[in-house]
Structure formats: C-alpha cells, structure tokens
Amino acid sequence: MTHQLKDGGRQALQGFAKELRVAPTQARTRKSRSALSRDLTPEILKRQTVRRTELRRLVPLSDTTIYELEQRGEFPKRFYLTPRCVVWPLEEVLLWVDERRAACEAGTAELAPHPDVRLRGSHD
Predict the structure, then answer these.
(1) Is the CA virtual torsion 16, 31, 42, 83 positive or negative?
(2) In whole angstroms, what is the distance from residue 110 CA to residue 112 CA?
(3) 17-53 pLDDT tens trace
(4) Residue 29 domain-assigned?
(5) Residue 50: how many CB atoms within 10 A of its CB?
(6) Contact assessment for residue 17 and residue 112, using Cβ atoms and an 8 Å cutoff
(7) Could you give the number of structural domains in the chain?
(8) Is 51 a domain residue?
(9) If we measure between CA atoms, which residue out of 102, 105, 117, 97 comes closest to residue 50?
(10) Model confidence over 46-99: pLDDT tens digits?
(11) Which domain holds residue 77?
C-alpha cells in the first residue's frame, strides 16, 4: 500500500486516532486533551492500530470476507500484539478504504454481476 492518504482520509485518520485515545467515558481535563493532540504526530499515527471492534466500524465486512481478502493480499495483514490480541494497522486500513472509494469513482472496481431474474425458476 504505497498510495498517499487524501486530505479527507488524513483527517479521518487523525479524528479516529483522537477518538480512540480520548474516550468520552474517561474523565480527562482540557489540558490533557491538548497535550494528547500535540502527541498525534504522523509517526504516531502510522503506528496506530485498531482491534477487531474498531475495524468493523471502519470496514463493514464480515470476519470471513476480511480474512479471505487478507489471504489474497487485497487487505492489510493483521498481526498479534499478544497471543490473543489481533490488530490491524489503522493507516493501511484507511488507505485501503480510500483505494476502494477511488476505484468505485473511477469505474474500475470489480463488482458482482447483476442477477438475471429471467433465469429464475418458477415459484410453484
């Protein structure tokens, strides 16, 4: 994944990273939030990871579909932080979404064929 993030993708990445780090349920002061915002440098954002629950919010595909895409090399690879904690690189996931959107807009995305309803059997 060598493509650069578009402006919208970069803003989404920063907003999502900020949302992950500053959870609304945590009581933090304004001072700590502003200090946190300064720490969100591009290097840190490149290292940001998402767990399965966050990935599902970003990419509404089933676990099986994501796994199959990973196996074909069409989706960012997961890695394990611990034996039971699997994560995906956030920046690569957002780049993948941007690439899919760009392919759809350019008309180059591979789409499933439309069903031909005339070929269906009768419902007797």
Answers:
(1) negative
(2) 7
(3) 565 554 444 444 444 444 445 555 677 777 899 999 9
(4) yes
(5) 21
(6) no
(7) 1
(8) yes
(9) 97
(10) 789 999 999 999 999 999 999 999 999 999 999 999 999 999 999 999 999 999
(11) 7-105
